[in-house]
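Action item from last meeting closed. Structure (1225 res):
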């Protein structure tokens, strides 16, 4: 609102705007002049500030450089200790020796440093408790070790950048690096000033920005390539407060000048705009009285006079435009009246068309479906009167559900049609199919739907009938062809395509003559054509040809189709493929002819026919040959009883009588079963004319007339005497085969023509552990074990043999068994063929060779072990002649196998092994013992090497020594290392004795010095207290403060010395006694009673604290320190809560003291146990930094260990372990 009023006030006065513009121009000049002065002043201030920054940056660089130099120098001096390099030569225990060198170096100058001892290969030996080297760091170190010189780099990761440096540890006898002293110096831990940033650049250092001072750190030579530097940036307000005051004075002066100019400009603007005020007055009069003859009087020739003239011209033109506009409005009004008359005429025509139309019409409101209007035709169609229709809703007529209506509208949209198909309900209850054409219509400002409804119920019924007829023709199994009156095909159904092979596209437009095969005569076609063109249907047979050239028979029915005018428009042909039935009839005729030929020509089979009473009517040549009778002597004269055994016939008659329950005799014995069941097969004994007996297989069948009446019987007999004899022999052979199979662990198998197993002998069940019937139908490759590798080439060759029906022998493969194991089997097989030479399958045998396979696998495995062994293997005969060497032997000695095989093993002797050694060696192995020892042998190039050798005898099957096997390991490096280790151990023993003496002297000195220093401190404290009392009221505030500082410092010094005395005494007790920790804790709590009361601490102790062996005073001191720290190091607003607990864990007593104090950061937990390591500022919490170091020494003196688990801000838990008291179970 304020801005709107301001804008209105500013725009209402031209004089005001003139005055403001003038004032702004003046203000701009003031700003330019003032800005120039301000810039010169700022430049002077910046120059002085830059000089100060350079001085501060140089001081910071000297300070940080000194810290880094001290750290690197401390570690470098440690790396120069020859004892460390000598210790690295030792092959075992070196970490135990090296760890003490790192003790106390977890932090240097308060900076945590990770230090790692590595050997010459970069492997970690010992650390100072920090993190081990990562993979990237170890790769860098390996490269440095290869180069053999100390180096350093900077690595950055997610935790920040750090210096990674490595000092080479050279062996003083060879100057070769035996390892390295590698350490990490975290740059983020350096105590930088708030304005300083530590940066580095290994190659080129980028220039510092304009507001930053860059100074390179003075560091040791090892870190020179890293180019560490300090970037010093001064805070934004460093320019000082003086420039702000100058700026304020300049701003006040500029503001006063601006207000003065604004007032003067306002006076001048009012005088300049006096003439315009009169123009404004005249313009207001013209606006209030409307367009008239009012005009502005013009005087003078200045800009205002020109503006008045322009105003008069504008008023003249506006008046002319108004007069023209009134004429156009009158003309447009006349046109609108004419349009209204035409619209009324159009509406009258619409109502006449709507009312008189023979099409049902509805006007529907699309908003709610209400029928607004309906014409009389709609009332007649639906059966409701007009008034009733106008009160109905379209949903009362449309029977489709909303979902179906939406579906129909979507279909119409997709099919791009302008009508919809619905089902409407009539007043009579009948439902009619309607086709609705709908469009929008504007009526009285409303948009209605104008719908034309067509009844399509009858049309849809006819369409559906046509569709059903079309589907019947399409799905008919008979071919259907429709041709025009000229015989050209217009339609064929799918059955035609299936029968002829021609597609519909290929047939349409063709004359059916394209199917002619030439077997049907032209006369037959002409007779057919004459009959159908005369209007009569025709039926007959065609012998046509398919597209592929194959002949086929068709039974065709062709009818003419007559149109409404009574003339033929098309021909309809329905054709059935009868090729199969025609071929069957031809086959029957052909078989009848062949039967007569067979009966006459068959000489090996007796064919005998009888009438219903058994009189022989046919006796073929085969019967004559089989029985020795001539046909003419039996036909129409005898029955088959002539050549049958009477006893056999009677016996068969009794069997049938018992089976059927009626007496059977005579000829009925031969034909009764055949008459009942259609045929009878049985073995009979024929009696030849010469009296010899034949065994025959007789098949008897009845012969039927067309009326299904039996008119005779036909018997076909085959002499099976030879087969019966062969069967007897086969049975004997099978019995022998069965005995053979059942008496062996091998098995016999058979497979069919598809190589599926069809039979196994019983012994196979025991091999696979399951019923072999479960494998019937499976093929050999279906039962292969899936746990063993398949040898593809071997299987491919085997499958090739099976495909070619070739016999095979000893094919091996792994078969899976019932217990999920596998067996290695060997099978052999031969193909089997029937009498016609058709392949029937395979028959063969199999054997379980798993044991042999396992032995072979073990042999191969042992061979691979020997060949790939990392030690040398040599096999010799009993005389020492080399028979075998492995690859490692060749690698070690330099000999190729062919150079040593056949040579005596003396070839490898160096000549420096005592003869007695060889005598003991041969004496041991010749007596069957194993000899183990070390020999100095010689390689092919003449160099000597030490080997650790184990020689064993190898026995033959008779128990005699047949060979010797020697397993040899090159231990040259180990022997040299042992020599260096022995020498280093001697040096270490000497140094150890020296260090023990030195440590004893240092401990005694620390104790004496600490004890003697306390007396002077107590004297200083006492005299300062006397001075304070003596002066009394004369003490000024400063002097009292100085005395308090001195007394406080002396007291802290006394506590520090006392803690040092305790630290030096820890572990010097005279012996261990049983200490009840419950009593030790109780005494510690009693000592801290005042502290606990003042702090309102809550202390809880778990019942049943155990007893340990130790020093009672030290254990009280341990708990007193831990509980006292828990009370001391806690936020002032928090009440101390302390828990003392224990449990047994891993055979030790695990105790803990838990508090809710300030907590300890993870990176400070190891440092907390170091002497003089304070983790908080002195002014926040009092202390000497020795308490936890004493606790650590007490726990370790009692054979345990101590550690911290903590969360910053929530508290800490100090865990301790103690060995269990031997007297407790």
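Sequence:
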């Amino acid at each position: 609102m304020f801005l709107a009023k301001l804008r209105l006030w500013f725009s209402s006065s031209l004089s005001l705007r003139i005055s403001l513009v003038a004032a702004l121009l003046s203000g701009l000049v003031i700003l330019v002049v003032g800005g120039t002065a301000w810039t010169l002043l700022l430049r002077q201030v910046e120059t002085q500030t830059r000089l100060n920054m350079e001085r501060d940056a140089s001081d910071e660089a000297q300070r940080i450089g000194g810290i880094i130099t001290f750290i690197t120098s401390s570690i470098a001096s440690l790396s120069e200790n020859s004892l460390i390099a000598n210790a690295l030569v030792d092959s075992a225990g070196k970490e135990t020796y090296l760890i003490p060198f790192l003790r106390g170096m977890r932090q240097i100058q308060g900076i945590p440093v990770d230090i790692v001892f590595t050997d010459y290969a970069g492997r970690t030996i010992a650390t100072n408790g920090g993190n081990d080297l990562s993979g990237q760091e170890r790769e860098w170190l390996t490269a440095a070790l290869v180069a053999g010189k100390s180096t350093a780099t900077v690595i950055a990761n997610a935790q920040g950048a750090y210096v990674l440096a490595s000092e080479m540890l050279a062996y003083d006898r060879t100057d070769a690096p035996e390892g390295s002293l590698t350490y990490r110096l975290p740059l983020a831990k350096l105590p930088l000033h708030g304005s300083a940033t530590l940066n580095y650049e290994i190659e080129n250092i980028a220039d510092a920005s304009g507001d930053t001072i860059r100074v390179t750190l003075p560091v040791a030579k090892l870190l020179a390539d890293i180019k560490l530097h300090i970037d010093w940036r001064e805070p934004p307000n460093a320019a000082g407060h003086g420039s702000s005051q100058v700026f304020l004075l300049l701003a006040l002066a500029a503001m006063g000048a601006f207000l003065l100019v604004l007032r003067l400009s306002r006076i001048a603007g009012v005088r300049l705009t006096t003439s315009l005020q009169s123009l404004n007055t005249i313009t207001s009069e013209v606006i209030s009285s409307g367009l008239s003859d009012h005009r502005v009087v013009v005087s003078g020739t200045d800009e205002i006079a020109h503006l008045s003239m322009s105003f008069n011209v504008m008023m003249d033109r506006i008046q002319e435009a108004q007069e023209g506009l009134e004429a156009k409005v009158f003309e447009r009004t006349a046109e609108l009246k004419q349009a209204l008359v035409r619209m009324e005429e159009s509406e009258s025509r619409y109502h006449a068309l709507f009312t008189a139309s023979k099409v049902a019409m509805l006007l529907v409101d699309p908003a709610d479906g209400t029928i607004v209007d309906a014409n009389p035709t709609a009332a007649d169609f639906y059966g409701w009167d007009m008034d009733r229709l106008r009160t109905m809703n379209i949903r009362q007529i449309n029977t489709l559900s909303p979902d179906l209506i939406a579906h129909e509208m979507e279909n119409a949209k997709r099919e791009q049609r302008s009508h919809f198909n619905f089902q409407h309900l009539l007043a009579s209850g009948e439902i009619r199919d309607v086709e609705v054409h709908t469009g929008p219509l504007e009526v009285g400002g409303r948009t209605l739907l104008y719908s034309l409804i067509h009844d399509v119920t009858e049309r849809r019924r006819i369409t559906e009938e046509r569709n059903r007829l079309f589907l019947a023709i399409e799905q008919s199994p008979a071919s259907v062809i429709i041709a025009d009156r000229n015989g050209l095909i217009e339609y064929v159904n799918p059955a035609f395509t299936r029968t002829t092979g021609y597609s519909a596209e290929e047939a349409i437009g063709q004359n059916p003559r394209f199917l002619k095969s030439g077997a049907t005569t032209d006369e037959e076609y002409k007779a057919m054509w004459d009959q159908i063109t005369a209007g009569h249907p025709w039926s007959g047979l065609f012998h046509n040809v398919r597209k592929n050239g194959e002949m086929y028979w068709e039974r065709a029915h062709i009818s003419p189709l007559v149109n409404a005018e009574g003339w033929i428009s098309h021909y309809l042909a329905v054709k059935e493929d009868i090729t199969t039935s025609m071929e069957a009839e031809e086959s029957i005729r052909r078989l009848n002819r062949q039967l007569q030929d067979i009966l006459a020509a068959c000489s090996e089979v007796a064919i005998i026919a009888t009438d219903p009473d058994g009189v022989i009517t046919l006796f073929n040549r085969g019967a004559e040959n089989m029985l020795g009778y001539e046909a003419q002597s039996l036909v129409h004269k005898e029955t088959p009883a002539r050549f049958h055994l009477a006893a056999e016939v009677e016996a068969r008659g009794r069997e049938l009588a018992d089976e059927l329950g009626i007496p059977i005799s005579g000829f009925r014995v031969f034909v009764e079963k055949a008459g009942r069941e259609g045929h009878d097969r049985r073995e009979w004994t024929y009696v030849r004319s010469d009296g010899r007996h034949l065994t025959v297989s007789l098949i008897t069948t009845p012969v039927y007339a067309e009326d299904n009446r039996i008119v005779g019987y036909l018997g076909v007999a085959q002499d099976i005497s030879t087969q019966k004899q062969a069967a007897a022999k086969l049975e004997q052979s099978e019995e022998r085969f069965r005995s053979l199979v059942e008496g062996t662990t091998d098995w016999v198998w058979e497979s069919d023509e598809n190589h599926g197993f069809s039979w196994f002998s019983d012994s196979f069940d025991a091999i696979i552990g399951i019923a072999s019937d479960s494998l019937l139908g499976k093929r050999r490759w279906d039962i292969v074990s899936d746990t063993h590798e398949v040898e593809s080439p071997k299987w491919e060759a085997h499958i090739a043999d099976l495909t070619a029906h070739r016999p095979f022998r000893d094919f091996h493969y792994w078969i899976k068994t019932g217990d999920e194991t596998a067996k290695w089997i060997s099978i052999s097989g031969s193909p089997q063929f029937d009498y016609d030479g058709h392949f029937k399958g395979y028959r063969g045998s199999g054997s379980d060779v798993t044991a042999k396979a396992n032995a072979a696998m073990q042999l191969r495995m042992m061979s691979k072990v020997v060949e790939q062994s990392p030690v040398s293997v040599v096999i010799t005969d009993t005389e020492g002649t080399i028979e075998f060497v492995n690859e490692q032997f060749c690698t070690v000695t330099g000999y190729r196998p062919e150079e040593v095989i056949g040579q005596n093993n003396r070839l490898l002797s160096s000549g420096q092994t005592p003869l007695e050694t060889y005598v003991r060696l041969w004496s041991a192995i010749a007596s069957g013992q194993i000899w183990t020892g070390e020999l100095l042998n010689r390689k092919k190039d003449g160099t000597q090497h030490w080997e650790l050798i184990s020689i064993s005898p190898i026995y033959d099957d008779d128990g005699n020594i047949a060979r010797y096997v020697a397993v040899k390991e090159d231990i040259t490096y180990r022997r040299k290392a042992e020599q260096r280790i022995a020498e280093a151990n001697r040096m270490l023993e000497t140094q150890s004795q020296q260090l023990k003496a030195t440590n004893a002297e240092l401990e005694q000195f620390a104790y004496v010095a600490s004890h003697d220093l306390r007396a002077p401190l107590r004297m200083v404290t006492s005299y300062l207290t006397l001075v304070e009392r003596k002066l009394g009221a004369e003490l000024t505030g400063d002097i009292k403060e100085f005395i308090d500082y001195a007394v406080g410092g002396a007291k802290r010094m006394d506590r520090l010395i006392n803690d040092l005395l305790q630290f030096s005494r820890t572990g010097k007790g005279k012996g261990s006694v049983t200490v009840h920790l419950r009593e030790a804790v109780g005494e510690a709590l009693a000592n801290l009673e005042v502290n606990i009361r003042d702090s309102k601490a809550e202390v809880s102790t778990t019942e049943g604290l155990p007893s340990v062996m130790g020093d009672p005073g030290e254990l009280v001191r341990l708990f007193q320190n831990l509980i006292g720290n828990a009370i001391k190091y806690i936020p002032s607003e928090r009440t101390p809560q302390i828990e003392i607990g224990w449990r047994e864990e891993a055979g030790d007593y695990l105790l803990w003291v838990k508090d809710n104090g300030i907590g300890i950061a993870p990176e400070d937990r190891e440092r907390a146990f170091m002497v003089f390591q304070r983790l908080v500022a002195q002014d926040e919490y009092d202390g000497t930094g020795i308490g936890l170091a004493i606790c650590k020494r007490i726990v370790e003196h009692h054979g345990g260990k101590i550690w911290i688990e903590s969360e910053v801000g929530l508290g800490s838990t100090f865990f301790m372990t103690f060995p269990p008291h031997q007297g407790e179970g």
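Note appended to the action item: The chain has a mean pLDDT of 80.
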